[in-house]
Amino acid sequence: MCGIVGYIGHRNASELIIKGLKRLEYRGYDSAGIALFNESQIKVTKIKGKVSDLETKIIRKKNNSGSIGLGHTRWATHGVPSDINSHPHLSNSGDLVIIHNGIIENYAAIKEELVNRNFSFKSDTDTEVLVNLIEAVQKNGNYKLGKAVQIALNQVIGAYAIAVFDIKKPNEIVVARLGSPLAIGIGKNEFFIASDASPFIEYTNNAIYLEDEEMAIIRLHKDAIYRKIKNDSLFDPYLQELKLNIEQIEKGGYEHFMMKEIFEQPKAIEDTYRGRLNVDKGIIKMAGIEDHLDKFLNAQKITIVACGTSWHAALVAEYIFEDLARIPVEVEYASEFRYRNPIISDKDIVVAISQSGETADTLAAIKLAKGNGAFVFGICNVVGSSISRETDAGAYTHAGPEIGVASTKAFTTQITLLTLIALKLAKEKGTISNSNYKRHLVELETIPNKIEKVLRSDSVTREIAQIYKDASNFLYLGRGFNFPVALEGALKLKEISYIHAEGYPAAEMKHGPIALIDENMPIVVIATKFGHYEKIISNIQEIKSRKGKIICVVNEGDKIVKELADHIIEIPESLELLSPMLTTIPLQLLSYHIAVMLGKNVDQPRNLAKSVTVE
Ligand code: AGP
């Protein structure tokens, strides 16, 4: 929920950290701060606002020198966004400084104990409690920083990725993780610390991703020491060679990451099926499935857990799996699943879907499912993420970094991957005919080109956005495979334009939402030819009789809906089962254009963060 960046080496830490924080701003952006060590002093600058506000402040205060530093971009959990609650936080003595991504759940009890020991607190944060707990431990036992951090972390409950600096040991930074991501970039006589590798990708390709309950003492001109937090044992971490490149994390000429990512979808989908789909040979190759084929074929049901857009992809998958592979599927919000007493056993498969691979509720749902004996399969985009490590097996979407908070290419690539899995299982189970199987493979391969075509007619969507940008409410309707797309369209609009929007199965409209329809209500209807076309036409008629403004996504050449609708957006034809990958594109574009026209911050909408690593 927050982004952390740290540096120890020979470069100007301030410049590097500010640049890094800007790349991590997708993780949280209500306040930012930096601590720089220079001339035996720790200089802390922090501010409620964006990283660019922090940059201005440190330049103005001339607080920008030093080659050791820690920086933070925040999404508030404990304490409102304010200068004081921003990180980094200093300990009472002023000797220790900390940055933290996560939540210390038992901070209140610890705080009470520290107050009894005459510690005082400036902020409302759990993080200030943690840095003072470390200081209290240090004082009690005269411990070095590494040991004190370790002892303190064994007393806390919660999640953290932290970096701590001690003025008394100015050549080292101590880092640790539990539940929140932490990457260490290894350069020549320099180390980088960050929530993901994007802040240091231009300096080094070598990174270590700490696992849960691991810590490292990073020392200038020396090797780092890697230690388990619980049992004190040392370990050799796995040094990973990064494949990420700088272009992937920059806007590449687009005004916003969201638009770049919408336009990247044809390539992202190709990247998802590359090496897996061989249309000529009629083969789908997926090691993660093949290695556990028996489990999938014998599963009594598949439960899919996810949040937000990933949950919408799961709903599409429910239709696809049941239709093709005839395996019963249940889709659960991870946040609900984790707190009920779900009926899950070793005969079940649980599929967890997450772009970031860090969503706290999805992670907790996985742990619960594993505890009940289920086999858990992960579908993630971020390589090496917590969910990809926590699951028994899995597959990556390979969509490339998604930085805009509103998920776009994550959705279509998740559907691509889930379709491949369903087709593979259907073939193995014999629930699909050879010709139908082949037809789906051929069609799947045409999707990127068809998306290109939809993207080329973006101007139509922009014109519609111009007409309806001031509406206060929107309804989105779809049926069958496209009902989840209606939900996703509504989510996209509300999260970036702050316009209230609801998605519904079109037939449900008359059970309530129809009461909302009048001449001021724009209603987006997915009315493609295959699947429920006549039924959708009846629904459109019902809207028309109530004078609602009808915006329809139709197949090219459609004449019937064109007669009824106020506006149409044409997309190429495809199989019904594959159509969500096409129908969702105009809805992404519509929400994007409306948000831009309303002057909203498209990539960083208010109150949100890209990866929700807290409950
Ligand atoms: C969608 O646009 C979101 N910003 C959000 O709903 C997101 O999909 C959700 O938080 C799940 O994230 P994940 O896929 O990284 O787990």
3D architecture notes:
- By secondary structure, the chain is an alpha/beta fold.
- It has three domains: 3-248, Glutamine Phosphoribosylpyrophosphate, subunit 1, domain 1 (4-Layer Sandwich), CATH 3.60.20; 251-454, Glucose-6-phosphate isomerase like protein, domain 1 (Rossmann fold), CATH 3.40.50.10490; 457-601, 3-Layer(aba) Sandwich (Rossmann fold), CATH 3.40.50.
- 37% of the residues lie in helices and 23% in strands.
- The chain has 20 helices and 26 strands.
- An eight-stranded antiparallel β-sheet has the order 3-2-4-1-10-9-11-14, covered by helices on one side. Strands 5-6-7-8-12-13 form a six-stranded antiparallel β-sheet.
- Strand 24 (522-526), helix 18 (533-545) and strand 25 (549-555) form a beta-alpha-beta unit.
- Helix 4 crosses helix 5 (145-153), helix 15 runs parallel beside helix 20 (580-597) and helix 16 (458-468) packs across helix 20.
- The longest helix is centred in the C-terminal third of the chain and has 23 residues, at 434-456.
- The chain is globular, with a radius of gyration of 26 Å.
- The model has no long low-confidence stretch (mean pLDDT 94).
- The structure holds 2-deoxy-2-amino glucitol-6-phosphate (AGP).
- 2-deoxy-2-amino glucitol-6-phosphate is lined by residues 307-310, 354-356, 359, 362, 405-407, 410, 495, 611-612.
